[in-house]
Amino acid sequence: MGQLMQGKRGLVMGVANDHSIGWGIAQKLSAEGATLAFTYQGEAFGRRVKPLAEKLGAPFLLPCDVEDSASIDAVFEALGNEWGGIDFLVHAIGFSDKNELKGLYADTSRENFIRTMVISCYSFTECARKAAPLMTGGGAMITLTYAGSVRIMPNYNVMGVAKAGLEASVRYLASDYGPKNIRVNAISAGPIRTLAGAGIADSRQMLSYQQRNSPLRRTVTIDEVGGSALYLLSDLSSGVTGEIHYVDSGYHIVSMPVLEELRR
Ligand code: NAD
Asked: Which EC numbers does the record give (predicted)?
């Protein structure tokens, strides 16, 4: 165990199970000495997250549905009352109706467009606004995004539009909170098999395409995303804010893959 997060306390939102990216991040932070609080969405997830939170000795496990502002308020109020302040926030939350994560983007319904935006984009801004006053000694926040925000990924559709908004939010929040020494960044992770990932049609094909065509010729793990999150939430990255940091085996730099048989 290292010391990078010794004495730091923070909130991890978006762990559903031990495959979640949020769980990969939580384990890395805890191994470096961080004290963690977790939120969960609804009782069914709560039952799965409880033993995970206990494993890392988390003193708080709080319900939170980000569609409900009062539920967000209650989480940050509880943290303020118990801890007085926090040092970091992890937002690893995303949702869209899986019936619209296939077919044409053009067919996205108004109702699901709004719901996807609220949960996958706006909730980060709302949580950041609640977290910032608790970061009296400065702090760091991260969210999770995907390259479908800037380039077309089959079936990612409205989630790509929400992630584009989320990435723009990161830049605006970094500007808002920079003077308070609060840094705001995002990790753009490559495809990983998780509950949310499985909702995207043909996600297996996306994974194997990245495996074959990224510079590292493989996908990434939640442990690797956790390592980059540790960097962005610790003092190692004290000069970094407003950044979209890719953890995707380098896939985002590729236009046409360099085929082995054509190498000279
Ligand atoms: P996951 O299913 O393990 O986590 C998604 C989390 O979002 C769950 O814990 C779920 O409870 C939470 N959530 C959804 N709606 C919510 C609501 N209304 N209120 C509160 N919480 C809610 O999947 P994951 O892949 O670990 O997803 C975490 C983040 O990483 C998401 O933002 C996702 O878009 C992003 N991401 C995932 C991948 C991937 O391939 N898995 C790639 C890049 C980015």
From this structure: 1.3.1.9
